[in-house]
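S1.2 Input.
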Amino acid sequence: MDFMKNVFIIHGAYGSSKENWFPWLKDELERNNYQVFVPNFPTPAGQSLGNWLKVIGEYGYYINKETIFIGHILGPVFILSVLEKLEKPIKACFFVSGFVDFLGNEDFDVINKSFVDKDFDWEKIKGNCKNFHIYYSDNGPYVSVEKA
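S1.3 Output.
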């Protein structure tokens, strides 16, 4: 059985599918025969892990062994929660400026609470993705090196 190569690009808190480098990356990947999804998640109003999981749940059919997740800022910690729930492994994850704890910024910590204030099932996460790539900056405005 052939599986379509799918990429999901996941934005962060206060973000959207139309910002940053997401439209450019979507175009580049589509030129290379990837099917690319850039869902819009509720933020800041309605932002919760449960609400975001409902959104990604609508794409469950497209998640397969060739799937790649790319997350920015809040996206990586959300993807970790997705990996905990999958019944089959994916190909790879690329995390850009991700974190797994409170950032020390009240504007973000309040709306990110349900994403980070939990115990992660690291064994399930590692079982569902063996290929992680992590990128961070030493001068990012939201995620310090210590939190990356």
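S1.4 Remarks. The first helix runs from residue 22 to 31.
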